[in-house]
Amino acid sequence: MDSNTVSSQPALKADPMEGMAHSEAHYFNSYNHHGIHEEMLKDEVRTRSYRDAIYQNGHLFKDKVVLDVGCGTAILSMFAVKAGAKHVIGVDMSTIIDKAKEIVEVNGLSSKITLLQGKMEEVELPFPKVDIIISEWMGYFLLYESMLDTVLYARDKYLVPDGLIFPDKATIFLAGIEDGEYKEEKIGFWDNVWGFDYTPLKQTALTEPLVDTVDIKAVVTDPCGVLTLDLYKVQPADLAFTLPYSLTVRRNDFVHAVIAWFDIEFSACHKPIKFSTGPHTKYTHWKQTVFYLRDVLTCESGERITGILSNKPNDKNRRDLDIAISYKLESEDPGRQGSGSAEYKMC
Ligand code: SAH
Asked: Which positions fall inside the Methyltransferase domain (predicted)?
């Protein structure tokens, strides 16, 4: 049958996305396809850290009711059952949950895992309270497209007092990098395109952070932790912040960009489990986020780059971010002093 004919559509199935904002539906649809789940499941650092944090803490999971916020293919739900949970509830808005149900079934875990399709903020759970929340909510730059708001909603509504959150700590780091060649390719390119001045697009290119892997050899400064989120305490309003940073220059070199990454910690564990998405360690699908500066800073070992990082969820779509970075090279050489600021959009 022609798949475009009306009769091929299931006539009575309600569309769970109906009435949802376009950007919201787009977000959930992006998780329908198995490809994105393949990328996450194959991310060794990510998935192994969750598995270790859960398996190595059977004493915490034993006989507990667990909520898996944004369960996707139900991998974390299944880890929790294997660790001894009494029951796991997995919630996901995306249609991947249909496959998650089949996966749970073929693994013989259906009696221990209840999977619900819907928005976490709207579904009705079969338990009034849960002992543990597990969730993999992190986006690029930690907060881009992040569903942290959703985890906080679930925490406030369902988590028992003294309940546990896996993971429970996230820290954003910054560092300065030398990146002349690639900056020229991505930004300088617009100066002369087939003989024409394309600098209006140069401005646009500068406002868009790049998500890419950064070679550790390109890092010119020490890292600087800017913000740590404690998942037990953080409030949605804390995701808009303005914070100072200070980067100590480690060698004489140019600095073309500031990069950001995040570390994650499961501190409830007997032996705390952590992973980093920084340039100094193993690849993760979050890579790093590169913010090109307007100028090039010429730095000498021992000098500092100081400035302010601010972030605000976009007014129209909270999953998008408005980010600003100001920077100043604190040098005693007046010829090399430099400062500036730039605004970026992650959308
Ligand atoms: N836990 C899985 C999937 C993580 S990806 C794993 O670790 O592999 C995040 C998932 O959360 C996506 O499948 C997305 O559809 C879901 N999600 C995000 N916000 C949600 C919300 N508000 N309600 C329900 N599901 C949500």
From this structure: 66-162
Terminal-residue alpha carbon distance, the chain: 39
- List the one residue out of 105, 102, 115, 109 whose CA is nearest residue 84: 109
**129 and 262 assigned to the same domain:** no
Do 242 and 184 share a structural domain?
A: yes
Q: Return the SS3 of 68.
A: strand
Contacts of 337 (CB under 8 A, 6+ apart): 328, 329, 331
With CA atoms as reference, report the closest residue to 135 among 154, 114, 116: 154
Residues lining ligand 1, CB < 6 A?
28, 31, 37, 40-41, 70-73, 75-76, 91-94, 96, 119-121, 136, 147, 150
pTM of the model: 0.94
Considering the domain architecture, whether residues 181 and 315 belong to the same structural domain is answered as yes
- Residues tagged active-site: 136, 145
pLDDT for 53 beyond 50: yes
- In eight-state DSSP terms, residue 168 is -
Task: Show which of 149, 168, 187 is a domain's final residue.
Answer: 168
Residue 10 pLDDT grade (very low, low, confident, very high; cuts 50, 70, 90): very low
Of 24, 28, 42, 115, best ligand 1 pocket probe by most atoms within 8 Å of the beta carbon: 28
Choose one of 133, 168, 203: the last residue of a domain: 168
